[in-house]
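Entry 14. Structure prediction run on the chain below.
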Amino acid sequence: MRHMILAALAAAALSAPTAGSAEVLAEANGIVIEEGYARAAGASARTGAAFMAITNTNDSDDRLIEARSDIAERVELHTHQMKDGVAQMRQVEGGIPIPAGETVLLERGGLHVMFLGLTGEMAEGSAVDMVLVFETAGEIPVTIPVDLMRGQDGGHGHGHGAASGG
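Output returned:
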């Protein structure tokens, strides 16, 4: 009996995610969405954003061309640009390139999905259902947890060494 318990514990430890492993939220057509989270400025906020790592495991480039969600009147792909020393959010024209074999980070202070005109509250512990639309991989549904504390340092909140796209 003792050997069975030890074997079960060992198997559980081997299959459990490690501290450095990523939380995969969706995977389809060679695109992997991981470590995503969404946040709003507060309960009465009219805007919110979603952040994630998008990996293209395909041999050819792809492009995130649209994001959709019922949480907002409009959903746009955004980035931050510096103008006269002030960071301004701008809609990304033409989508976000996701090069073959690379990971692109959508993170605070960089590329991200922007929710404009929130239609519901983004409460801590809830989730946002989204559809990410890729030029080649097509539509990929994903559920992003709302985490109002993650990324407070301005970063994505994980240890990827990947490029953050442009």
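The chain has a mean pLDDT of 82.
Filed with the rest of this week's runs.
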